[in-house]
Amino acid sequence: MARVQEKGTEADVKKPSATTPGLHEEFDVTVIGAGPGGYICAVRAAQLGLKVLCVDKRKEAGGTCLNVGCIPSKALLHATERLVEARDLFPRMGIQCGEVKADLAAMMANKDRIVSETVKGVAFLFKKYQVTFRTGHASIKSPDCIVLDGEEVRTKRIVIATGSAPATLGGIEIDEKQIVTSTGALKLPHVPRHLIIVGAGVIGLELGSVWRRLGADVTIVEFADHIAPGFDRDMSKQLARSLQKLGINFRLNTKVTQVDKRADGLTVRVSPSDATGAEGEEALSCDTLLVATGRRPVTEGLGLEALDIKRDQRGHIIIDENFNTSCPGIYAIGDVVPGPMLAHKAEEEGYALANHLAGHPHHIRRDLIPGVIYTHPEVAMVGATEESLKAQNATYRVGTYPFMANGRARANCDTEGSVKILTCERTDTLLGIHIIGPSAGELIAEPALAMNFGASAEDIALSCHAHPTLSEAVKEAALAAFDRPLNL
């Protein structure tokens, strides 16, 4: 193991040997899982001079996110948004391009190309930083030994980064053809006539948007009384109106009780959720059903029971502030530990843990992990929702600003949505920022940075924002939170 000073720079760390080590050698760190958390942890640890092994069941690194999640879904979201833009918006902008139609096979091929190029980028990083990557099933024999497809591998520390898998509904068998998870919904060979989606969370809303733009009738069944659970209620109401205008039908306060396969499709039986007190069952017909009821941590087959590694009621591995599990020498990050199941959260944890293992300081504000829904309009948030502040009896102020009043949004013909900023009434400290509108996922970076440094709404308002930009809407909402906006 390379010697690492408690305080120093990468230049102070002895670099690993140029020879790729074999599995008969002892590793400083073994990372099980090569998703966003695992591969970032492996790369950062190698940058800091540690000898690293990364193991994954997939042949290619990148995990769910790069292979069958974030990247392919965003490729389809972007393509279908451009389809609608060319068909509906170009004529208004004075651009004539004739009939616009989708070529689903070509669209899927482009998505697959993007995925391939992205996962190759991870392989390049592993090679560049001399991370040993192996494909196979790994289980943990002891804190200093894993078993990889029957072969024992010695290691000084182990990181569990095995991610998550789609949660399923009891009694409903997933075949990834008629009844699909997000994995199957990303590779349907044809546009469904009627797609029913169970769950109005991020996955259901995004993939519902994709297939609706491509021509499918889309019905989203949600157990709760609103869509986008966990996001500020004002944002979810605005998003629901927008998606309804797109043509998505919502069945709220509704649960799925049974799914029957027919020769020509599926019969989905639904009834009012228990919270409504209503009764009655209804049969809905569709040709494809997407189960998007969330995700569950993947920990089976690792040998956690024998090591007495503690988990919570939802199956997440319990860790402390330094990512230690209840078994010394074994750490966990990403979707297998409590917190939002987000790729960027896993990346931050992977980076922080690698620094910790190499003796470097690390820090994460787990309460300031941004959340984004990549629909159109996008929804993004960081910090507290107004509902959570009310539940805490907090005293706060609200500043809002619509994109309709933003010059760049008008120039782009994309004015739907608004910015909402919540601040402490006494100190003006930022408590939460919520954006629905164009490029919300990009715009949320400034508020996230501001909140990480304890900034106030006035700090954002007094920072010069280029004109004309969408970011001026954030500045104006900040002005509204502590004084009054200038352009409203």
TrEMBL record:
Domain Pyridine nucleotide-disulphide oxidoreductase dimerisation per the UniProt entry, residue ranges: 369-478
Biased amino acid composition, Basic and acidic residues: 1-15
EC number from the UniProt entry: 1.8.1.4
GO molecular function: dihydrolipoyl dehydrogenase (NADH) activity
Stretch list, region Disordered: 1-20
EC category: oxidoreductase
Catalytic reaction list: N(6)-[(R)-dihydrolipoyl]-L-lysyl-[protein] + NAD(+) = N(6)-[(R)-lipoyl]-L-lysyl-[protein] + NADH + H(+)
Cofactor note (record): Binds 1 FAD per subunit.
Domain FAD/NAD(P)-binding: 27-350
Cofactor(s) the protein requires to work: FAD
Assigned keywords, A-Z: Disulfide bond, FAD, Flavoprotein, NAD, Oxidoreductase, Redox-active center
Superkingdom of origin: Bacteria
InterPro entries: Class-I_Pyr_Nuc-Dis_Oxidored, FAD/NAD-bd_sf, FAD/NAD-binding_dom, FAD/NAD-linked_Rdtase_dimer_sf, Lipoamide_DH, Pyr_nuc-diS_OxRdtase, Pyr_nucl-diS_OxRdtase_dimer, Pyr_OxRdtase_I_AS
Keyword field contains Transferase: no
Other known facts: The active site is a redox-active disulfide bond.
Family under the similarity heading: Belongs to the class-I pyridine nucleotide-disulfide oxidoreductase family.
Matches recorded under NCBIfam families: lipoamide_DH (TIGR01350)
Protein name: Dihydrolipoyl dehydrogenase
